[in-house]
Amino acid sequence: MTSISSARASTILMVDDHELVRLGVRALLNSQASPSGSALNVLEAGSLCEALALYERHKDAIDLVLLDLALPDTRGLNGLTTLRERHPDARIVVISGIGTSGLAQDWLAQAVLAAGADAFLPKTASLREVVSLVRACGLPDGAVGHLPLPSNEPPHADRSLPERVSETLSPRHLSVFQLILEGKNNREIAEALHLSEGTVKNYVSTILLRLEVRSRAQLISSLR
């Protein structure tokens, strides 16, 4: 476990009962720490009990919690709900390997967002998605850099947002995206597309993540 230094640093609490997973996430995040940004600390817990104790001890320093649902002392969503109830201001991203099909993952995403998570990622997500989501969901600017693209792929920054929209969004996401641009809120989008508001919230979160913007307002202004 990385200790917290006396200087203010960006801190992530990684909660997973598999040591190899914690090691991999810590190595990934540290490899992406911006040389010009603040330091990055990663605290580790293998159970909900350990996570609650660490969060209570370092709650003023922790910027983000990466939480697995399948812990030895939790069942279903009760780890998330317990953490949310005890620390309502915590920024929580659920990363789970439960469910392999797209339908199962969509259902789980809706459930964890409804239970109070700020975002959801399956453990099958790419490294870029993990880094992008961490960067978008709670760390101060500069704490985590951009994941380099493969050498045979053109630099991401050289592609315009409209090009990224067509490359990264599915037809269903594009439908939601169009209604966002029309200024509709989640309820209005749900009614227009005959979806639940929870499903729409998940679609919107995914759109913002894939386009690397922090809010609807930033998305709309980027296209003007």
CATH class bucket of the largest domain: Alpha Beta
- What kind of oligomer do you see? single chain
- According to CATH, the fold-level topology of the largest domain is Rossmann fold
**Share of helical residues:** 40-55%
Assign an overall shape.
globular
> Unreliable runs, pLDDT <50, ≥5 residues?
1-7, 145-159
Short descriptors:
224 residues, 10 helices, globular, disordered N terminus, Arc Repressor Mutant, subunit A, 12% strand, alpha/beta
Give your account of this protein's structure.
By secondary structure, the protein is an alpha/beta fold. It has 2 domains: 10-136, Rossmann fold (3-Layer(aba) Sandwich), CATH 3.40.50.2300; 156-222, Arc Repressor Mutant, subunit A (Orthogonal Bundle). Helices cover 46% and strands 12% of the residues. The chain has 10 helices and 5 strands. Strands 2-1-3-4-5 form a 5-stranded parallel β-sheet, with helices on both faces. Helix 4 (102-114) crosses helix 9 (197-210), helix 7 (171-181) crosses helix 9 and helix 8 (186-193) packs across helix 9. The termini are far apart. 32% of the residues are buried.
